[in-house]
Every structure is written in structure tokens, then in C-alpha cells.
Batch of 4 targets.
Target 1
Amino acid sequence: QKEVEQDPGPLSVPEGAIVSLNCTYSNSAFQYFMWYRQYSRKGPELLMYTYSSGNKEDGRFTAQVDKSSKYISLFIRDSQPSDSATYLCAMSPDNYGQNFVFGPGTRLSVLP
Amino acid sequence: ETGVTQSPTHLIKTRGQQVTLRCSSQSGHNTVSWYQQALGQGPQFIFQYYREEENGRGNFPPRFSGLQFPNYSSELNVNALELDDSALYLCASSLGALNTEAFFGQGTRLTVV
């Protein structure tokens, strides 16, 4: 079992839909949970992060962490074609590089 | 744009050769981390440099080595290239070693033939 699992997609949705992206993990020591967006031929861009459990909202994006289920989610409301990208989850027991584990990413297409 | 620049953007090398990739960190940042992203995978941590010293290393063999210069720019060197080294190599810079403060460059696409 991989440490962080993520459905690779591709996931195609119509413009305006609510998108749900998810990751599961096996290491109960993870405390920092991040979501990155990566456009084609670009580096990842941090969208938001959560420490420990709970929800966090930033504009159209909401991140949720359920540590009891080892499950994290990113919701995108009113999705736009510009949201078409690969979404990577990443997590770490602390906030330091060598312990940072990424999921394989989910490719999202938002169709006009 | 993040202010982190990498060069070259694309590179083709032959198996057994050596390669040097470069990263210019964002102004004011003193930490550079390097990642390898194989096709269809998430980035994997190679190592990190903080104020010119190695500050953590992932599960990569010694033929992956690096340097950080006094201006905090950095190089990644890979010796004895193997076909499996074909990947996107990303650097991320930050002030201090915190993941949540790091900005990624656009990457160098390395193809080993």
C-alpha cells in the first residue's frame, strides 16, 4: 500500500459544477495537509494547507481533513475552465521537506 | 510567476552521462529543495539546502548530489544517468525550511535515452 493514494482521473466536469478531489493515507503521524495545483509544463502551486483536522475555506476552495478516516478532500465550487489542471495532495508529520509525501495527482478537466 | 527560475527547461542526455541542473531562488529565500517528478507521479523529495549546507535527503543514491551557492542559488548534479532518471526536476525555494512557505520553479524536463 502506498503511503498516499489519489485517484489519477482524468476527471471531467461541466463548468459550474462542484468538484470533489480526495486522498487517503496510511501514516497516522501526518499533521500538515496541503493541496497543490499543477498546470501542464509548470511547477506545483500551493492552493491551501490545513494543520491537523478540520475544514479550511479560501474563496471557491474548501479543504477538509478527517484524521480518524485518514482521508482528505478538496472541494472546488463553481468550477471554471481555468481550474483544469492536475491537483496534488501532499502531507507531512511536520512542516519540513524530507518528510513531505505527495500523492500522484488527479487530472481535472472543466469543460466550457 | 513565483520568482524561482530553473535552467535549462528541457534536456536530452545519453545513459551514463552526467547532467547539471540549475535553480535560482526567489529573492530573500535561503533554502532550496529539489524534487523528482516522474510522469504521472507526484514529486519525490531529493534533498534540501539551507544556507549552503545539506539539510535533509530523500531516498536517492549518492550519484544525485547538489550545491548551494552564497547567493542561495543551487545546482543538482546527477552522475551515471540511467533511463529511469527521465523526469521533471523541480526546485522550490523558501525562507527557512518550511514546506508551506516554499515556491516551485517551472521545472527541468530531463530525458535520458
Target 2
Amino acid sequence: NAGVTQTPKFRILKIGQSMTLQCAQDMNHNYMYWYRQDPGMGLKLIYYSVGAGITDKGEVPNGYNVSRSTTEDFPLRLELAAPSQTSVYFCASSYMSGQGAGYTFGSGTRLTVV
Amino acid sequence: AQSVTQPDIHITVSEGASLELRCNYSYGATPYLFWYVQSPGQGLQLLLKYFSGDTLVQGIKGFEAEFKRSQSSFNLRKPSVHWSDAAEYFCAVGANTGNQFYFGTGTSLTVIP
């Protein structure tokens, strides 16, 4: 059982480049989330989705975009990378609204923008 | 507004000693409370959760936490720490609207032999 799979694990981007962080889950969870983790700051919600075709902004959505065309996949897009987006990104999923279930997390993508 | 405070940035304990990690929250209603553990280079793993009922909840790996409404706290405890418990621990509170958790800034645990 793979759970939540994130790719790539590491990436270095130059300022202004774009990239997509991939997230896939095989648990048939409706709810999926993207968080970023900065040192000493905890986790901040970027975007979330309550099902295929439905997405919404979280606490820190600026500079990011998402799509949810299938239940399994929830990619995160960075269009014009900035140094402020250097962070560790975590994708998570849950079978019901997060406050009722808790999350299953992926192992993260460490992104550096130079 | 909801918030979570973990007052201890870093804690060091000896293997076999007891452990208590503090978590205080700010929330207007009965919160949903969680503790997660993050090993180096890994994602977060759910240790335990509290929704209602018995205020002492048991989790995985021998951890427990106690919800104290009067103190707005949800402290994590373990009677005897193992070297493999060295990790980062996060407390989180679930909002009753929307789909957002609020995470604390984490407590890093070091276990010495």
C-alpha cells in the first residue's frame, strides 16, 4: 500500500522557472492538501481539494496553482519560482474532512530556488 | 482565531526517562486535536487524536495525550522514551469550518543514551 506518493524528492530551481510537484494517493481519499514547511514555522496550508474538480485556497496560496482532475492526483504548480518559495512541500490526504480523520502525509519535496 | 503553541523548541531526554511535550491551543469551541511525529526526511505520521469523550487518549508507539479544557492544553506523554523516538513532534488543531488544520511550530526531541 503506497499511501501518498510525492515526486520529486528534491529539486533546485532558478528564479523565474516553473515546475509541477506531483502528488498521488491510492487510498481513494476525497480530501487532498498541499502544505509547505519552513524552519521554525510549522506547516502552512497552500491549497486543498475536497474532490475531483474542486479546489480551494488555503492560508498561503500566492504563487501557486493546483488542479484535481482525478481522485488520485493533486499536482501543485509553481509558475514563476521565487526564493521565498524555498521550502519543504508536503502533500496529504484524508478520507473525510481533515478535522475528523487526521491526514496521511507524503514524504515531502524539498525545493530550493536560487 | 485558532492557533497552536508549542512552547518548547527543543527537548533532550535520556533513554528510559519519561517525556512530556506541551501544546496549548486557542480555539472558540471544542477542538479536534492531534499529535504528529516527523522523523528526519519523512512526512508526518499521526500519533493520536482527540475529538470528544475520554480526555486521556492513547496513541501509537506508547504515546498518550491528555486534553485539559480548563488549561487549553493537549500535552503528549510517554512513560519511557526509546532512542527511536528522537524526531520532531507537531501538535495540531482542526477548525470546525473549512478544511484547515493549524499546526504548532514543532518540538524537536533528542534522546541520549
Target 3
Amino acid sequence: GAGVSQSPSNKVTEKGKDVELRCDPISGHTALYWYRQRLGQGLEFLIYFQGNSAPDKSGLPSDRFSAERTGESVSTLTIQRTQQEDSAVYLCASSLGLGGNQPQHFGDGTRLSIL
Amino acid sequence: DQQVKQNSPSLSVQEGRISILNCDYTNSMFDYFLWYKKYPAEGPTFLISISSIKDKNEDGRFTVFLNKSAKHLSLHIVPSQPGDSAVYFCAARGSQGNLIFGKGTKLSVKP
């Protein structure tokens, strides 16, 4: 399909392990966002990429979280030394960019469970 | 402190009637608002948006109203259908382009 694709859809891991989550945005979308949704909460912004500009990392909750993006395509979100409070659904979204009012389109997320 | 608030965690409506979902925000600098619909185990799906220069935007059965002076927006769905049953999120665009979400309202449309 032509939508945002995320993998894996589910990930269960032990506390202290590192995890890597992947996002394939919609082709042609220059802006890419990562959010997370904890149980019973709204979506919480994590990090944002726009074209080749330096990413906006203002939402990352700790230095255990990092993200990369290759050009205007795939992005990976890495969580090092996972903690139980990292358990959440991690959602990726992409949009055409900042020009005008462009809605963000979301993938189905990765459900991360830390044991 | 929440900048976008959806004060009703749930709403139940009869099929064919109007559903009204409400949202309040605190930051008068927000200039673009969106509504998303979310089914379990799926990502949010974009429904409709409105710029702060407008007070109404309509798309089929969905209409969003914006009252800037009250910092309030609402989503009207008419007529409501059972397939509309989902969690609805209100969002405002932040200064970095990120979306700031409310906690959602779970809509149940009864046949």
C-alpha cells in the first residue's frame, strides 16, 4: 500500500535490552514524526525530521532515545537499555512538509512491551 | 499541563442522530487544528482539519467548528453510523509542526 509502514508491529523484550523500530513514510513526504502513546494517554511527540535539516529532538524523554533518518525515506527509532516505562505504542507519521496546512498520516504503530 | 483537552472520555449516540465531540485548547497561537479517528490496533486516521482563519469546515458527514474566542472546537458527525464507533482525537499543530493531541473521546454509535 501507499501508506506509512512500521515494523515490527509488536515487540516484546526484556528490561535493559536495546530495541530498534522502523518507519517507512509515504513516498514524497519530506516531514516525518515519531510519537508514542502510553496506555490511557494521548499521543506524545518525540522527534521530527524535515528534509535534510537537523531533527527536532525536543520531545525525546531521555538520552536513551535516539532516531535517524536516511534522506527523505526510512527512519529508525532506537531505545537503549529499555525500562518498563518505555512500554507504549510508538507511532510514526509523515506529511508533505511545513508549507501550507498538511495533515500528518500515521502508520499502525509498533506495540512495545518491556518485561 | 495539557494544552489540548477533550473532557469527555466517552460518548454514546443512537444511529442516525448527531454526534458532537468537543475539544478545548489553551494556546491562542495555535493556527491549525485536526481531528483523527482511531480504531483499536490501528494508527490514527486523518478526518478533517481547520485553519484558524476559518470558523467552519465541512466534508460530507463531518463538520468541524472553531470558536477562537472560546478556544474551543467541535466535530459534528451527522448522521452517525455504527462504523463511526472509534476513539476520536483532537490535535493542534505546535510551533515545530508536531501535533499536540488530546486524550481522545471514545464514540459508540448504537444501531
Target 4
Amino acid sequence: NAGVTQTPKFQVLKTGQSMTLQCAQDMNHEYMSWYRQDPGMGLRLIHYSVGAGITDQGEVPNGYNVSRSTTEDFPLRLLSAAPSQTSVYFCASSYYRRMGMAEAFFGQGTRLTVV
Amino acid sequence: KNEVEQSPQNLTAQEGEFITINCSYSVGISALHWLQQHPGGGIVSLFMLSSGKKKHGRLIATINIQEKHSSLHITASHPRDSAVYICAVDSGAGNKLVFGAGTILRVKS
């Protein structure tokens, strides 16, 4: 059971380049989300999905795009990378509950540097 | 003011000491999560609680809903407990977690 798998682990981009961070889970979780972690700040929600075909914006969605075509995969796209997007990105999945999230499972993170 | 405040920000302890990390929040919640992040590593869920107290090994988590406060305790601390401990709250609306900034714990042998 692999859990939540994120790729790549490290990435350096030039300003203006685009790329996709991959996230896959094998636990049949309905809920998936992307967070960014910056020094001195808590994780902040970028986008989330409560099921295949359903996505919504979080706290800091600008510059990012997501889609959810399958239950397993939830890729995060950087449309035109900017230095402000230098961060560590985490994907997470959970069972969906009407009254809030169940235990969350996180990927190992992607450390992204935009130069 | 952040919705979730953790204290202390940094904590250094000697091996064997009893450790307490605090989390205060300002919103109504359906659940509170405690997470652990090792250096360079991923994030692992330790506890999810909505009332009372939970225990797992040397870790104990408590929550007081009326006071909007939770504590994470580590008994008989060990250097392998060195990590960042993160508190997150779930308001129950839209399945969104709001995170504290984390407490960096270092346990010296």
C-alpha cells in the first residue's frame, strides 16, 4: 500500500516555465488537496477536490490549476512559474465526511525552486 | 491574528523530559488534528480529536472545546521525537484544514 505518492521530490524551474506536480493515492479516498508550506507559516490550501470531476479553490489558488479526472490522481499545474511560488508542496488525501475531514494522509512533498 | 496559534515556536528539551505543546484556535471546529513532520520528510497524522483525550504510546493529546485549546504531550522524550509538530483545525465546512505555524522540537541526549 503506497499511500500518497508525489513526484517529483525536487524541481528547479525558470520564471515563466510551466510544470505539473503529480499526486496519486491508492486508498480510494474521495478528498484530495494541495498545500504549500513556506517558512514561518502554516500550510496553506491551494486547491482541493471532494471527488472525481469536482474541484474548488482554497486560500491561495492564484497561479495554479487542478483537475480530477480519476479518484486516484490529482495533479497540480503551475501555469507560468514565478519566484513567489518557490515553496514546498504537499498533496494530501482523506475520506470525505459531511462534518469534516477524517485523518489526512500526506505525500512526501515536492521542493520547488523558481529562479 | 491567525486562526490557529501554537506555542512555543521552538522548544529544546533534554532526553526524558515531559513536553507540552499548545494550540489555541479562534473558530468553531468539528475536529482538531496533530501532525508530525520530520526534517526533510513528509507529514504524518498523529491524532484527530473532537473532544476529551487520546493516547498513543508516549503521546497524549487533549482538547478543551469550551476554551478552544488543545495540548500535545510527550512523556519520556527521546531524540527521535525531534520534529516539527503541527496543529490543524477543521471547521467542518468544506473539508478545509487551517494550520498553525508549527512547533520545532529538539530533544537532546
